[in-house]
Amino acid sequence: MTCQKRCCVNAANRTVKKVLCIIVVIAALVWVDTNFNIIASSQANKQARAHLQAVFLSNGQVYFGALSRHGIGFWRLDRAHYLQVSKTPSALSPETPDGTAPQETRTTLMKLSDDMHRPQNTLFIPASQILFWQNLQNDSPVAQAIISGQ
After folding, report:
1. Does position 83 have pLDDT exceeding 70, yes or no?
2. Of 58, 36, 37, residue with least CA distance to 133
3. Residue 115 domain boundaries
């Protein structure tokens, strides 16, 4: 085989190797995105930053705030708030026949940082604990309370 033919064969082999390498890299990137939802979570992250969210957890708790991605397996909720339901005896209503006073239910939006142990106002939530989240409309009472800093 002459030197010229050998050079052409080597050049063709290098081209094939480059094409195969590119195909392997693209396949690896597609596999990573499919398994870790990088593109989808990036789009969800951008959409989430534009609004405040209600985040529904698997334990039944609902938190409100600004949701963003925090690594692969976690979400971060800034300006975190939650609803606290308390029952107080009603002073206006008479006692019931069994002698107990009727109770009023009061729901209050609580800032996470106002808890007794004074945590920072950020909550890190494992992605596996989030059932779903919803964007709040800017004119919702919860969003207005969070925006105004109450």
Report:
1. yes
2. 58
3. 49-148
What is the separation, in whole angstroms, between the first and last Cα of the chain?
84
Same domain, 97 and 126: yes
Give the pairing type, strands 130-135 and 53-57: antiparallel
| pLDDT per position as a tens digit, 113-125 | 888 888 888 999 9
Q: How many whole angstroms separate alpha carbon 108 and alpha carbon 100?
A: 24
Q: How far apart are CA 77 and CA 75, in angstroms?
A: 7
DSSP state of 99: S
pTM of the entire predicted model = 0.60
Residue 41 within any structural domain of the chain? no
